[in-house]
């Protein structure tokens, strides 16, 4: 039996990837946990559209799945968000929700 090996270990089966990366299976497709987009895929047609979506939109998805399997946790959307963008968004959210003036948070440097 031949088995593909990646830099992180054995190649993950498509079924495992789909179970970890998608939610709400329906007869017409599933919802991606990384971007909340519904991907059309007939249940009897395999996983091609779902895996192609991950490969084109979410680089590093295999590493995320492996990490989640090791940690025994589920995939969440924040695992695919750039940390600088997330930090900026959280600061903006704090300023707006606490009604701070921009002058109070402006760095004078």
From TrEMBL:
It comes from the Eukaryota. This is BED-type domain-containing protein.
């Amino acid at each position: 039996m031949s088995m593909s090996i990646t830099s992180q270990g054995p190649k993950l089966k498509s079924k495992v990837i789909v179970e970890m990366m998608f939610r709400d299976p329906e007869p017409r497709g599933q919802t991606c946990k990384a971007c909340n987009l519904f991907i059309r895929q007939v249940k009897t047609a395999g996983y091609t559209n779902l895996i192609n979506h991950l490969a084109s939109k979410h680089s590093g998805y295999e590493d995320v799945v492996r990490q989640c399997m090791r940690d025994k946790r589920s995939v969440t959307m924040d695992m695919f968000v750039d940390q600088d963008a997330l930090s900026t968004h959280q600061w903006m959210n704090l300023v707006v929700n606490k009604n701070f003036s921009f002058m109070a948070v402006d760095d004078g440097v």
